[in-house]
Design brief:
Elements: H1 4-11, E1 15-24, H2 41-53, E2 59-61, E3 70-81, H3 87-97, E4 102-110, E5 122-130, E6 144-145, H4 152-161, E7 164-167, E8 183-194, E9 197-204, H5 211-223, H6 229-237, E10 253-259
Parallel strand pairs: 3-10, 5-6
Antiparallel strand pairs: 1-3, 1-4, 2-3, 5-9, 5-10, 7-8, 8-9
Helix pairs in contact: 2-3, 4-5, 4-6
Length: about 260
């Protein structure tokens, strides 16, 4: 004879898995991850889903972004009621319920086995900084204003140290629960200059808590003469030895895309 749990399972509504690519201006949010105060990007999306579906729907992101960090291509999935709306209709309906700082750029139905976080194979982050004498109001909240000139040779030499597979224990912050491993692979770091604007792209298989901002902080400290390449290399080779740690501001960082 079926029990209550079996009855509940049999009455469960059929769903389809929707994969979303989301862009957001992180300036007014306390990061991606849902929190009690409710002013996160995940909270915002879940409210939009509830408005459209008239029921609570959990959104699962590819990973967290910190307070103030932006995204061009955050990926997420959600299980939505089957048969009601097309993917194109979900796109329009969700964007109609979201604030202008958050937009679903595209969405499509995928296999039920797809998972935005566990299927991710890598991410690309971009850090923007400007050495302009005066910070443009259009760069406010979008770039780190560095008041000193950068030595490009030192900047590129410091960035090159991090390419490859390393133990990045010296370049992560404590979130309360230590990761199972602090070893990550950075496939490429690309540095570009356009006038006073410098962008640094980090392409890797995964990133630890505040890792990109700590890497950027070390690179910029080296490029401004506050830290040597050898000091950074020592911290990378011997993560147990404490060194100077500087976290670059959140507003310069953007999650560009998630690789699958």
């Amino acid at each position: 004879m079926p029990n209550d749990e079996t009855d509940k399972a049999s009455r469960k509504k059929p769903t389809r898995r929707l994969r979303l690519v989301i862009a957001y201006d992180g300036s007014g949010f306390r990061g991606w991850q849902s929190q009690a105060h409710g002013d996160t990007v995940q909270d915002c999306l879940e409210k939009a889903f509830a408005s459209v579906a008239r029921e609570e729907i959990r959104v699962h992101g590819a990973g967290r972004t910190d307070s103030g960090v932006h995204a061009l291509g955050q990926c997420a999935h959600a299980d939505v009621p089957a048969g009601r709306l097309t993917a194109a209709t979900w796109l329009k309906a969700l964007n109609a319920c979201l604030p202008p700082q958050v937009r679903v750029m595209n969405c499509r139905f995928v296999a039920a086995a797809f998972h935005a976080r566990f299927d991710a194979r890598g991410k690309v982050y971009r850090y923007r900084l400007t050495t302009a004498p005066v910070l443009s109001p259009f760069e406010r909240g979008r770039a780190w204003h560095v008041m000193e000139q950068l030595d490009e040779a030192k900047l590129r030499a410091a960035a090159a140290l991090f390419v490859g597979r390393h133990d990045f224990a010296g370049f992560t912050a404590n979130r309360g629960k230590p990761p199972t491993s602090t070893t990550r692979t950075i496939h490429r770091i690309r540095v570009r200059h356009i006038a006073a604007l410098t962008t640094i792209d980090f392409d890797g298989d995964g990133f630890l808590y505040k890792m990109v901002r700590l890497l950027t902080g070390a690179i910029v400290r080296c490029a401004t003469g506050r830290e040597s390449v050898s000091e950074i290399k020592l911290r990378l080779d011997r993560p147990s030895e404490n060194g100077t740690r500087f976290v670059a501001p959140a507003e310069g960082l953007t999650l560009v895309r998630v690789r699958y």
